[in-house]
Design brief:
With 186 residues, the protein is an alpha/beta fold. It has 5 helices and 8 strands; from the N terminus they run βαβαβαβαββββα. The longest helix has 28 residues.
């Protein structure tokens, strides 16, 4: 099973990216988690460019389409998701009805130094994904006080590690259920 993991933060050593690295480490051997790190390369969404999609956008769409599921980790900026992440989702949601996000199982993680774990950002991200046609896992993972859960770039909090392992497991089950339904319909 292949999961594409997207960090909403452009910062190299961000907590969102650290959570995705931990997810990759914790995933079962049969699961490949690819961390997408080209978010900064994606041009601002512009309908005028849809006839000649920028290469970075085409690459993102192809990677989403090739993955069985998505795992997205977002920080919270001013009560919402970062602009670069929203921009990437806008591109990935096109063309309407045929986009790579349509029917794609997705799990959402939010992290923040505040005690609320990016709750608002997760709400906005979940809404954008749902409206784009993704199948969003009901379970959430809100990692509050994230700065206290990492040491030297590694997730050390055992409770968060277990929650992350469980979330990835549920995402795999959702993806497998979707693949089973598609196979039965064929």
């Amino acid at each position: 099973m292949r999961i594409l993991a997207i960090s909403g933060s452009l910062r190299r050593d961000s907590y969102s990216s650290g959570l995705l690295r931990a997810a990759r480490e914790l995933a079962a051997a049969a699961v490949e988690i690819e961390i997408y790190d080209d978010l900064a390369e994606i041009a601002a969404f512009n309908e005028d460019l849809e006839e000649s999609v920028p290469a970075a956008v085409a690459d993102l769409r192809e990677r989403i389409a090739a993955a069985e599921a998505l795992l997205i980790a977002t920080p919270e900026y001013n009560g919402s998701i970062p602009g670069a992440l929203k921009n990437a989702l806008d591109w990935a949601s096109r063309p309407y009805g045929e986009a790579a996000l349509v029917g794609k199982p997705v799990a959402v993680i939010g992290s923040s130094p505040s005690p609320f774990g990016a709750a608002w950002a997760q709400e906005h991200l979940r809404r954008a994904l749902s409206l784009s046609g993704s199948v969003v896992l009901e379970r959430e993972l809100k990692v509050g006080r994230v700065d206290e859960r990492f040491e030297d770039g590694e997730l050390i909090d055992l409770g968060t590690r277990e929650e992350l392992r469980e979330l990835v497991g549920e995402l795999l089950e959702l993806a497998a259920a979707g693949a089973t339904e598609l196979g039965a319909a064929a």
